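ok new one. same drill as before - structure tokens go in, u give me an amino acid for every spot. 332 of them this time. try not to just spam alanines like last time pls lmao
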């Protein structure tokens, strides 16, 4: 498919700079409903795409069908498919590429060191101690010199000043982002593990997309990866409860739980550990008491019921019981 698409696009559509290809398969959930699951993903930028000789590539898949992934700007393969491959050929990992973006580089580095994919707490900022500064030298007080005798002045009644009422400040209306942040925090008590640490809100009125980002809170028990799934699910439920019946302009709700990861070089950066996307048609069907009970019994069910979820591959690979999470990402 990559060869056919590349041959059709690069020499014909000069305005195209990036081609993204995804291979999906139909999966049936426990309710008998089918949804599409992402199995393979590959991305080619123009600089990479224009290097291909498609006439020579035409017979290449029959000799080695993995080369188009190895030469992609970026590729990602589901964990299950990766482990099921016998001969992995040029693919040294389930994620890689010859020209990845900075975020994709971080994913590749994290995949190369699974043990370093544990979220870590951000270091506290040290405040330097105050430096004592010597005070000014005391100046001797001059000797009092007798002055002239004061002549008494008769007192006069001075009227008290009239109290002036300060003008009332004009209230500044809250932005959509501020209103959403307040609504989200007002609903945090619904599920205690939802996070509002580092809360940011982005609203795009042109397409009705609302994105809420939070940072992972401290890990209270279990694995850091398991806690990421718990907090991502809880935050997604709280956000839906705050949004769908209050903000009719919202059509798409994205909730992302971000965390700090350390790569093999010792450098740290913030990546999205897990995220969900819910469309209005789905969100309006939610029964929140029922969602909370399902979450308390299995914190992965909300991700599986969302229109789309995405989990950082290293987080997904480190999960013990994955339950309904058949892959690191899926879209219905």
């Amino acid at each position: 498919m990559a060869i056919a698409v590349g041959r059709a696009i690069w020499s014909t559509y000069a305005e195209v700079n990036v081609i993204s290809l995804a291979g999906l398969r139909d999966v049936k959930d426990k309710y008998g409903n089918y949804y599409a699951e992402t199995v393979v993903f590959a991305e080619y930028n123009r600089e990479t795409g224009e290097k291909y000789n498609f006439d020579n590539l035409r017979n290449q898949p029959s000799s080695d069908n993995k080369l188009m992934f190895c030469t992609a700007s970026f590729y990602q393969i589901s964990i299950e498919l990766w482990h099921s491959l016998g001969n992995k050929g040029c693919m040294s990992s389930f994620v890689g590429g010859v020209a990845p973006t900075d975020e994709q580089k971080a994913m590749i580095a994290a995949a190369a060191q699974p043990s370093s994919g544990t979220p870590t707490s951000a270091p506290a900022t040290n405040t330097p101690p105050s430096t004592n500064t010597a005070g000014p030298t005391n100046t001797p007080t001059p000797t009092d010199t007798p002055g002239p005798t004061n002549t008494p002045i008769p007192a006069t009644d001075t009227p008290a000043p009239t109290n002036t009422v300060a003008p009332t400040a004009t209230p500044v209306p809250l932005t959509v982002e501020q209103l959403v942040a307040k609504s989200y925090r007002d609903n945090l008590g619904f599920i205690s593990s939802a996070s509002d640490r580092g809360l940011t809100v982005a609203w795009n009125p042109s397409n009705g997309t609302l994105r809420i980002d939070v940072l992972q809170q401290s890990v209270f028990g279990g694995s850091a990866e398991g806690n990421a799934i718990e907090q991502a699910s809880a935050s997604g439920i709280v956000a839906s409860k705050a949004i769908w019946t209050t903000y009719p302009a919202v059509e798409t709700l994205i909730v992302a739980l971000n965390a700090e990861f350390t790569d093999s070089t010792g450098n740290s950066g913030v990546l999205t550990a897990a995220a969900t996307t819910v469309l209005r048609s789905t969100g309006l069907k939610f029964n929140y008491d029922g969602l909370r009970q399902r979450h308390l019994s299995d914190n992965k069910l909300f991700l599986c019921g969302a229109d789309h979820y995405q989990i950082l591959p290293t987080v997904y690979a480190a999960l013990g019981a994955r339950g309904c999470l058949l892959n690191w990402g899926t879209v219905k």
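Strands lie at 18-28, 34-45, 74-77, 95-96, 200-204, 209-215, 252-262, 268-279, 308-311, 329-331. and btw Residues 114-145 have pLDDT under 50 and may be disordered.
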